[in-house]
């Protein structure tokens, strides 16, 4: 409840700010949309809590809501910061140059919100299943929730019609998300026209130049005097080792400036390409200036703090087995994958994706906080004439052999090149080669180690062994569902590597799993109940639009999460029923001998009476964790182990199993114990950390199986 109150406080602050909405002169429509989305999300989630939860149980049964609501609170707070930036009455020209091209409202803030809403709603549903002590009410709620996730709703149009308002995917909301950025750019251009035509306060010479910058198309080359002659232009410090990258202060805003001496015609292909890109996770040229006489070029970009290699090293130490918490690691992976998904949708391939080409803006000095990530070095495949050097503030990734980031097919071309350089470049600049590089980056994020740094592959042998199938080894602490995805990405066969759109969908759902199953400082990592890659492949065959190259709009995210959840429930239920039928006869025999009656949950174990009667925080927290599928799967394993133990004790009796298996009473999403006398034994099982296990890694041969 405290987390939900904090969200309400942020929303109240936003309402106070929007009293002055007429004073917002930059991205006003986007600010309006963001506040409306926050209002709708808060109202929808609040209504679900009012209908299904009991306020008197907030200290005993609401524990599973804490992490999802904390995540939602962070999203609201980031949105508030964005709106404050647009409302800030600083130098209007500098703020306009900094924010007018931004798509952060939809592609960052609304993306996060539309991902988080399904997670919070699922957490509410899980708590509702153990809310109250009336069995009939609990049963009815479970029936309602089970009907929600039936396959008949797994259609985009039906989903929008049925759940569009709750998940913020109504037709009106989708239309606004598609058009709001264009509307703000049009409003800005109209405001500049009015300022130019104003007789009361005509524009100065500098302001006229700045107006030309704001109204010019992206990628247009402007005279360098516009930048260098500005009275407040100042170089603050050099970034990197070669001196081409600098931090500058311009019109009250901080930017990064790339300064190169080169014939402009040689650089035009890359300038045109990089200037046309516009995504929160891709570094692009905001403005380009040149001096043709001196043959020098200035590219203005967003300022970032450091590269990913440096960022990982800052938090690696013997006391930390991994650099970041899992939810932060997955978020960084997702941002990189989203940037690459956008690039590939524009038919742009990176060709040199590695940690030194991924830039980071950290929001805090703590490894537990999120960071903004952008992909740099784009355009490597478009132009080979630009002077080579590190594209990030800290240079190359720790001096590592660059071949470790390249796919085997790329290394084969380098060692045995085709006639002409173009053929070799085609292999290097391809979708699947970028996916391989992404897999190696995931390894460093998960382990804190540069691939192959342990020394068993060095020198000339490294390239040869990588082409032969050698890959870096994960340590025991790496979660299996993430190591499996990583191994899919660095598969030797390029056709077996997933697309970045598929990777994004899987990572969103993995992040949802971690948020619903926080480790709470436990030494063992959460274990996923299903194979997300199998779910992705099945859904991609069902929905043809998932196979297209175009990056899907953010409004598709709630349906994608919903479809994953439907399939996950079906597979979890099928697995548990199969285990139930396999061990049914054994359970009946041991039950007769030892008085143990196995009751296997179908999807969620109902322990409402146990949790309501327990006063300890530990018991409540553990019972609440029974919402997760990981708990359900391990619950079955625990019961099977007990059945086998009982069977061994009574083996000398040689009892033939003639009676029917133990009766299962279905209560919607889960099974319910028929006897109150069984609650202590089940409670003991629930209080043990059975849903967590040490995560290893699957071999590549296992992944190759269909």
From TrEMBL:
The Protein kinase domain extends over 233-514
KW Transport (keyword) present: no
Q: Where is this region: Disordered?
A: 573-622, 668-706
Spell out the PROSITE patterns in the cross-references: PROTEIN_KINASE_DOM (PS50011)
Name a Pfam family for this protein: DUF1221
Enzyme type, top EC level: transferase
Q: Recorded GO terms, molecular function? A: ATP binding; MAP kinase kinase kinase activity
Which EC numbers does the record give?
A: 2.7.11.25
Question: In this entry, which stretches build a coiled coil?
Answer: none
Residue ranges annotated as compositionally biased, kind Basic and acidic residues, are 697-706
Q: Which InterPro entries match?
A: DUF1221, Kinase-like_dom_sf, Prot_kinase_dom, Ser-Thr/Tyr_kinase_cat_dom, Ser/Thr_Kinases-Pseudokinases
Keyword Repressor recorded = no
Keywords in alphabetical order: Kinase, Transferase
Residue stretches of biased makeup (Low complexity): 582-591, 604-622
Q: What is this protein called?
A: Light-sensor Protein kinase
């Amino acid at each position: 409840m405290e987390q939900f109150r904090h969200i309400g406080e942020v929303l109240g602050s936003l309402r106070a700010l929007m009293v002055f909405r007429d004073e917002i002169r930059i991205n006003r429509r986007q600010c309006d949309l963001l506040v409306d989305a926050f209002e709708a999300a808060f109202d929808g989630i609040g209504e679900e809590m009012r209908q299904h939860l009991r306020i008197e149980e907030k200290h005993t049964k609401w524990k599973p809501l804490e992490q999802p609501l904390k995540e939602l609170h962070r999203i609201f707070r980031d949105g508030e910061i964005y709106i404050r930036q647009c409302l800030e009455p600083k130098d209007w020209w500098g703020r306009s140059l900094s924010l007018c091209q931004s798509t952060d409202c939809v592609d960052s803030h609304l993306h996060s919100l539309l991902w988080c809403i399904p997670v919070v709603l699922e957490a509410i549903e899980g708590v509702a299943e153990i809310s109250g002590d009336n069995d009939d009410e609990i049963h009815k709620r479970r029936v309602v929730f089970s009907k929600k996730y039936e396959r008949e709703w797994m259609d985009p149009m039906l989903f929008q019609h049925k759940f569009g308002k709750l998940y913020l995917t109504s037709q009106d909301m989708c239309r606004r998300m598609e058009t709001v950025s264009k509307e703000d750019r049009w409003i800005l251009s109209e405001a500049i026209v009015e300022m130019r035509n104003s007789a009361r306060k005509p524009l100065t010479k500098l302001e006229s130049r700045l107006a030309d910058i704001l109204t010019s198309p992206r990628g247009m080359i402007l005279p360098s005097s516009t930048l260098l002659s500005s009275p407040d232009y100042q170089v603050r410090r050099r970034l990197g080792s070669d001196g081409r990258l600098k931090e500058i202060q311009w019109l009250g805003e901080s930017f990064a400036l790339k300064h190169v001496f080169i014939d402009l015609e040689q650089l035009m292909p890359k300038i045109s390409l990089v200037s046309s890109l516009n995504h929160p996770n891709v570094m692009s040229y905001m403005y380009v200036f040149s001096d043709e006489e001196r043959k020098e070029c200035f590219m203005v970009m967003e300022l970032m703090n450091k590269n990913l290699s440096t960022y990982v090293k800052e938090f690696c130490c013997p006391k930390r087995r991994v650099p970041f918490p899992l939810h932060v690691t997955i978020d960084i992976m997702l941002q990189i994958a989203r940037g690459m998904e956008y690039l590939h949708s524009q038919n742009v391939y990176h060709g040199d994706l590695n940690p030194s080409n991924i830039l980071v803006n950290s929001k805090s000095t703590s490894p537990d906080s999120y960071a903004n990530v952008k992909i740099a070095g784009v355009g490597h495949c478009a132009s080979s004439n630009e002077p080579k050097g590190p594209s990030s503030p800290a240079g190359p990734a720790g001096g590592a052999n660059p071949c470790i980031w390249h796919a085997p097919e790329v290394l084969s071309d380098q060692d045995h090149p085709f006639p002409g350089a173009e053929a070799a470049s085609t292999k290097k600049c391809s979708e699947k080669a970028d996916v391989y590089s992404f897999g190696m980056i995931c390894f460093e994020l998960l382990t804190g180690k540069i691939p192959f740094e342990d020394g068993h592959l060095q020198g000339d042998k490294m390239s040869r062994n990588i082409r032969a199938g050698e890959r870096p080894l994960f340590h025991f602490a790496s979660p299996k569902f993430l190591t499996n995805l990583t191994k899919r990405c660095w598969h030797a066969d390029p056709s077996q590597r997933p697309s970045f759109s598929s990777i994004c969908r899987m990572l969103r759902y993995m992040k949802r799993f971690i948020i619903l199953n926080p480790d709470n400082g436990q030494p063992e990592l959460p274990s996923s109940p299903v194979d997300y890659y199998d779910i992705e492949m099945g859904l991609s065959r069902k929905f043809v639009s998932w196979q297209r190259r175009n990056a899907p709009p953010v409004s598709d995210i709630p349906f994608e999460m919903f479809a994953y959840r439907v399939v996950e429930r079906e597979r979890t239920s099928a697995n548990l029923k199969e285990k139930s039928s396999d061990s049914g006869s054994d359970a009946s025999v041991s039950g007769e001998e030892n008085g143990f009656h196995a009751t296997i949950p179908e999807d969620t174990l109902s322990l409402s009476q146990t949790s309501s009667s327990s006063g300890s925080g530990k018991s409540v927290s553990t019972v609440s964790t029974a919402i997760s599928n990981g708990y359900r799967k391990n619950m079955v394993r625990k019961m099977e182990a007990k059945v086998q133990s009982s069977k061994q004790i009574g083996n000398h009796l040689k009892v033939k199993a003639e009676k029917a298996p133990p009766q299962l009473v279905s209560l919607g999403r889960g099974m319910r114990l028929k006897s109150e006398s069984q609650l202590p034994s089940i409670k003991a099982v629930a209080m043990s950390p059975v849903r967590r296990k040490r995560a290893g890694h699957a071999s590549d041969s296992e992944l190759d199986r269909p």
